[in-house]
Write a structure and sequence with these properties.
The protein folds into three domains: 23-193, Cobalamin-binding domain (Rossmann fold, 3-Layer(aba) Sandwich); 229-487, Alpha-Beta Horseshoe (pyruvate-formate lyase- activating enzyme), CATH 3.80.30; 536-630, no CATH class. The protein has helices at residues 56-63, 84-93, 106-114, 129-133, 135-139, 144-152, 161-173, 189-193, 247-251, 260-272, 290-306, 327-335, 350-355, 359-362, 366-375, 393-405, 423-430, 457-472, 474-487, 500-515, 520-556, 566-583, 589-604, 610-630, 636-655, 657-660; strands at residues 23-29, 70-76, 96-100, 124-127, 155-157, 184-186, 230-232, 235-236, 256-257, 277-281, 311-317, 338-346, 379-386, 411-415. The protein has 26 helices and 14 strands. The longest helix is centred in the C-terminal third of the chain and has 37 residues, at 520-556. Bound molecules: cobalamin and iron/sulfur cluster. Residues 238, 240-242, 245, 247-248, 284-285, 318, 344 line the site of iron/sulfur cluster.
Length: 661
Amino acid sequence: MSVPANPTAGHGGPAMTVAPGRKQGLLLVPEFPFDSFWSFRYVLRLIGRKATYPPLGLLTFAGYLPESEWDLELVDLNVRRWPEAALRSKVAAADVVFASAMSIQKRSLVEFLQGAARGTDTPVVLGGPFASSFREQILRPESPSDRVLHEGLDVLVWGEARGAIDQLREYLAAGPRHESGAPRLLIPETVARVEPGSRGYLNDRAIFPPLDDVPLPRWDLIRVSDYDSMMVQTTAGCPFRCDFCDIIQFNGGFSRPKPPALVRRELEAILATGFRGGVFTVDDNFIGSPTATAQLLDEMIEFQRAHGYPFGFLTQASVDLGTPKLAHLVEKMRLAGFQSVFLGIENPDPEALRSFNKKQNIKVDLDATVRVLQENGIEVYGGFIFGSDQDTVASAERIVAFVKRSKIFTAMTGMLTPIPFTPLHERLRREGRLRLAEYSGNNTDDNVQFEPARMTAAQLQAGSRAISVALFTAAEAYRRALDSVAAVRHHGFNSGRFSARYVKAAVASIWGQGIRRHDRDYFRLLRSAFRLDRQFRRRLRREAREVARLLRDLAVREQTAWSVDREHAYRLAGLARDYLVRQCPEVGLAEVTSWFAGVRARIDGNALTVADITMIGQNAMASLRAQARQYRFPGIKLRKAFEAAIRGWHYQKAMAAPTRR
Ligand code: B12
Ligand code: SF4
């Protein structure tokens, strides 16, 4: 599949043109609630976007439908809310609706089935994590909303599209119409047979096949400029066994990497849409297979170098990323332009972690892990869970203290939520501790869904609210934003571009967050970031002058050895290597890597040659100067401060949702 030259085609504008004999498919993305941590709905207008992320799962599924047979139109209700009648005529005109949802989109899906889809005879097929994990509720409904799903949906697809596509094609070939009986479930027999909570099939390679032939997502079905970031999947599955996790349940208990060449093609396809900016590597655990990740990162580095670093990557990884064993991956992530990584830290208390079976987090020093990444220029986002069987009211304070001292700004905190088919859910069910609250999957929603062990439900709810207040009021958010901006040592592997959209967002932020609210904390954040830029710029320029002097001395006195100590020599060699990677794409990555390894060995053996010294010195100087330019007004710290302030505005509002109720 190739990406068409016009990336704006087919974005839910005029109804699709019907060619005779072809099938019409309507791809539906239900709406995310306003008050959700990741929706960024409060600030999207400010940054000139309609939604945060495109529906990668649905676009990937679309890639399995032959273009020679199908006309597809995508309706993303996060981008545009359609009047019911207009949406109904789209549904009625289609042969089938393909919907994709997480549990958090359930309400919107229910509204769609009760509204626009009602009275049409178009069948509705649901895939994505909601269908996988909540299939039982839909097949045997107990609540009114589940009954709507039961009657409104025709097919539920468990897991990845690839496993179900043949059966789905067969079903669609017969020209089905909507029926209000129980939906049919497409699921591998083994998975359907096992006891809920069992994980016996997680390593079954027939159920979780390699990702070698996943089609490219159909980017032509969206208008790329509606979205803030793009997404790419490089692996699926995870080797760990956290008790609350449903991901491994439907994506497998081991890491399945895509071949690097396929990932490269996906990145090229995103680039061809004209998009530049943040790309979310949406893996369940980016480092689930470290050997494969290293190879993949080499490909990503080469891609970035070849195109002048068009993308800034964000991903999700397990906390072992910060251990010395995986330092080489952090180094490669830096060179590939990773800007941030989401870590499932969950809880600083080892006993709580043990109760989640999150053993990997107990083995590492969590504070040190966060620090290692920050020092390598990668901002850490953290996920935190309150409500383990070990937690008491005091645990809420410990979570807050950890977030503050580790300088994590994007802290997604929430209550423990048991998801069906997970060992956690089964244990709580056996112990009679499940409550009948609807699972929304939204961390800003504070319905208590189980009886906690060492607190009352009311205390759990109060503790959760206390965490939000302690971290997300305006003053706290801005203070933590500054801590984070100061802690993350900028690595310089970015495009260095500064778009007009960015300037507009900054102006709107100054007006809306600062001037209109007379918010001193907001201005303190910007002022301090401005000063940090100045300090860094001066420091880097001074260092560049020193290197120039060292080189001059060497030339003038015709010395054959350099008067710098070993640590300093390592630093300069590192700077030189960074410059070659970032600014000299004509020199192959393998060549740079082997030069750097040789130089390090010669530093260790005290055997640097004059050629080495000259090469190191000149490139280190250029590197320092290039870095210093990034701190020129509006410098990188100020830009990061604006970004954090804008994100913080959304968090303040979204995280305060329960207290507004
Ligand atoms: C990346 C990611 C995010 C990103 C981007 C989300 C987005 N807009 O797409 C961010 C960080 C924003 C995010 C946020 C949230 N997320 Co999230 N996220 C993921 C993650 C890690 C990967 C999703 C992904 O894109 N995978 C890659 C694509 C290619 O795979 P896929 O979507 O599964 O699609 C395949 C199949 O499902 C299937 N398929 C998908 N759709 C369809 C449709 C049809 C018709 C068919 C036949 C097949 C089909 O075919 C596809 C190709 O094989 C998943 C974990 C996971 N593996 O699902 C969690 C996950 C989906 N997220 C989850 C949650 C809870 C959330 C939040 C609610 C967290 C929160 N508390 O705020 C928010 C909600 C988002 C919002 N806007 O408010 C849960 C959902 C639980 C559930 N069972 O419903 C998951 C499963 C993780 C978890 N267990 O905690 N998330
Ligand atoms: S590390 Fe993350 S993806 Fe892996 S099992 Fe634990 S929660 Fe699931």
